[in-house]
Amino acid sequence: MPLTDQPVKGMYLLEENRIFLLQDRKLKTQGRQGGLLILKMKALDNGQIITKTIKAGTKVEYVHPEMKEMQYLYSDASGAYFMDSSTYETVNISSEILGHYIHFLKEGESVLVMVYEGKVLTIKENPTVVLEVTESTDAVKGNTSSSATKLVTVETGYKIQVPLFVKTGDLVKINTETGEYSGKAN
Fold it and tell me: What's the domain count of the chain?
């Protein structure tokens, strides 16, 4: 395993035989004693968020996961099924690994899957996705006392609040981190 004393955001760390994604790192200085690194890490096996403090300059183990292009096929209660584009092998990725991002996957879409030692770590998530509105209700006159929104269903079955002018057949941009409407696509 390679070692580094400069962990950076987005790096995959190996800690106690578990792989973590480094989400944030802060340096805290303490006068003559040197600094401390406060690492915010997400466990890829169960999604647990851990904060760990180490001395600046301490070596940590990191891994380089292999990126494979896979095609999304379908999902069920256990997770989602992907086909490896090079070997045509079907791979099941559990719902815990995918999290809420499963709501934004379109059938036939290609995604990058990160694999380490034959085990799927995670998929590379896009910050926004463009999906088509399949079900929409008409705006009700006088329904504008607060922000004027309505509930629509997009092609993946995900339900989202959008402005009243969005109608069936429109393409909308969705922020995958918050799951909220972020604009109309061209």
Answer: 3
CA dihedral 120, 60, 18, 121 (to 10 degrees): -10
Q: Summarize pLDDT for 119-157 with one digit per residue, the tens.
A: 888 888 889 999 999 998 876 666 566 678 889 999 999
β-pairing, 60-63 vs 49-55, is unpaired
d(CA 16, CA 125): 26
Helix residue spans in the chain (DSSP H) = 95-98
User: Are 45 and 92 in the same domain?
Assistant: no
Q: Which residue, among 19, 97, 115, has the nearest Cα to 60 in the 3D structure?
A: 19
Give the global pTM: 0.72
Range of the domain at 113: 66-123
3-state secondary structure 97-125: HHHHHHHHCCCCCEEEEEEECCEEEEECC
